[in-house]
Design a protein that fits this description.
about 120 residues, mainly beta, 7-stranded mixed beta sheet, 4-stranded antiparallel beta sheet, 11 strands
Length: about 120
């Protein structure tokens, strides 16, 4: 059974930090690129950050460059999103995505709410 379970969301003040985790199970984690997406109320889902299956390359949305860091631990089958200098506009539900590097396989987590507010 494939599962992606996000955790670490919550309420934080502007300028604060949070670290999101996404624990994977039920598939071969090391052959999947991993990404974080977010969806704010009334808006479409946007890519926040992505990391290749080996962790050798990362990609970030312009809005989070220099503030967010994506990383992964293939031994723990977990991907992380370190978020610093959070802004109210970062408020959204954050989703973890796994996409197989070759062939089919595209999975989503259930999402975790991040709210940035004073």
């Amino acid at each position: 059974q494939v599962q992606l379970v996000e955790s670490g969301g919550g309420l934080v003040q502007p300028g604060g930090s949070l670290t999101l985790s996404c624990a994977a199970s039920g598939f071969t984690f090391s052959v999947y690129d991993m990404s974080w997406y977010r969806q704010a109320p009334g808006k479409e889902s946007d890519l926040v950050a992505a990391i290749t299956n080996t962790g050798g390359r990362t990609n970030y949305a312009d809005s989070v460059k220099g503030r967010f860091t994506i990383s992964r631990d293939n031994a723990k089958k977990t991907v992380y999103l370190q978020m610093n200098s959070l802004k109210p506009e970062d408020t959204a539900v954050y989703y973890c995505n796994a996409r197989r590097i070759v062939g089919t396989g595209n999975y989503w987590g259930q999402g975790t709410q991040v709210t940035v507010s004073s």
